[in-house]
Design a protein that fits this description.
Layout lengths: L14 H15 L6 E2 L11 H14 L15 H15 L8 E4 L2 H7 L10 E5 L3 H8 L6 E4 L18 E5 L11 H13 L3 E5 L25 E6 L1 H4 L7 E4 L12 H12 L5 H10 L2 H28 L3 E3 L5 E5 L6 H12 L1 E2 L1 E2 L10 E5 L4 H15 L4
């Protein structure tokens, strides 16, 4: 039989699966130890009550003949897409049209599935370190992306230059895993570069809800010219706790076209209507509730909760005098390992000696070989305990 042999170029395990496996093994061997996970970016706060109530009402509707719904529109119910349009208008002063928005089961899926509408030979550019899904899904198609090192020397924010040959450019802002954030001027340089070189920016906006500076953009469409070169991928996972529910959306402006006039909006809509039957009615009703006044207030409270955790982590790192970036506009903190450790060695030390699970930076790319990522998504109680353990561990002269 013939297979897609590009899959054989992947590492044996997905990064977070490896972290989970090592954690399970350690826990099985040390059942008396309590572990605190500051690793995977899963949320710990429950769904907002207004979302749960909306989903309960939708469940009741689905149990009655008069209000039962079967297949819904593949691109999303108009009332949810209209709520998203209104959110962009009121919160970011960005004007979108309903048919520029396609509802999906999450950003991870869209970041992969969008590759269907591009030429398999397209040149791809992304940062290093980077969210592993970007890299792996391109390897699956036989592409080897060009990597732009995100290091302390460039403040972990690579910028365009003449060495870049790109048809597709991945930008995550705020960045995963480093937690840093491009400002308007920096994003403008990327937009100008993409337009000049006829490239498309795949803009991962999953963490924009953590931006708390009004001078920083929360959508790439706040940047002049972005409509002609950028696709924005958004998620309810971190914003509203939908990691176990699954819902997101992607914005593909109708102004985004190839040089010969082919609309990427039409291609994406055609792809989705062919390969995807849409997000469930119940989930979309829950997502709609996120944009109500009560929903936005509940989301703010949850985000503030995680920000408090991140501030505590950063304060602890400052006491330890461990270099780090991120945390200010992100749930992630990118921490430099002590000089004598690489990422996996430091992962093991924190796991064994402190009972803390982190994410080794090398799993995001070679530029992360001397870093770990910590997250603020655990409970405040556990975050405090973890910080106390870090301080106690430092007494052993890490």
């Amino acid at each position: 039989m013939k297979i897609n042999r590009n899959y054989l170029n992947l590492t044996e395990n997905y990064l977070f699966s490896t972290v989970a496996a090592k954690t399970r093994t350690f826990q099985a061997e040390h059942p008396d130890k309590t572990l605190i996970k500051l690793s995977i970016g899963d949320v710990s706060r429950p769904l907002p009550a207004v979302v749960v109530q909306a989903m309960k009402r939708a469940c009741k509707e689905m149990g009655q003949t008069k209000t039962f719904r079967g297949y819904g529109p593949e691109l999303g119910y108009p009332w949810l897409r209209n709520a998203i349009v209104d959110f962009y208008h009121t919160q970011m002063q960005v004007e979108l049209e309903t048919d520029e928005i396609v509802v999906s089961d999450g950003a991870k899926s869209d970041l992969s599935n969008l590759l269907d509408i591009f030429d398999p030979t397209a040149n791809v550019v992304m940062c290093d370190p980077v969210y592993p899904v970007y890299w792996d899904t391109n390897l699956m198609l036989g592409r080897t992306p060009q990597l732009l090192p995100a290091t302390a020397e460039n403040n972990f924010l690579p910028m365009p230059d003449t060495s870049i040959v790109a048809d597709i450019i991945y930008l995550c802002n705020p960045a995963n895993p480093t937690g840093v954030c491009y400002d308007r001027a920096q994003l403008k340089r990327w937009v100008d570069f993409a337009r000049e070189h006829q490239a498309v920016i795949l803009y991962d906006a999953a963490y924009t809800c953590f931006i708390n500076d009004p001078d920083l953009p929360r959508s790439i469409y706040e940047i002049d010219g972005a409509r002609e070169c950028a696709i924005e991928i958004c998620s309810f996972s971190k914003m509203a706790g939908f990691t176990g529910v699954r819902c997101g959306y992607t914005v593909v402006p109708k102004a985004l076209k190839t040089m010969d006039g082919v609309s990427l909006n039409q291609l994406w809509r055609r792809r989705q209507t062919t390969k995807f039957n849409g997000v469930s009615y119940i989930v979309q009703r829950g997502a709609e509730a996120v944009f109500t006044p009560a929903g936005r207030q509940a989301v703010k409270q949850n985000i503030d909760y995680y920000r408090r955790n991140v501030r505590l982590i950063c304060q602890t790192l400052e006491r330890l005098q461990w270099p780090y970036v991120g945390g200010m506009h992100s749930p992630y903190v990118w921490v430099r390992c002590p000089a004598e450790y690489d990422a996996w060695q430091f992962f093991d030390k924190l796991l064994v000696q402190a009972g803390i699970v982190c994410t080794p930076g090398v799993g995001f790319g070679s530029a992360g070989k001397n870093y770990i990522r910590l997250t603020g998504f655990n409970s405040y109680t556990n975050t405090r305990r973890a910080c106390r353990r870090l301080l106690d561990l430092s007494k052993d002269k890490i």
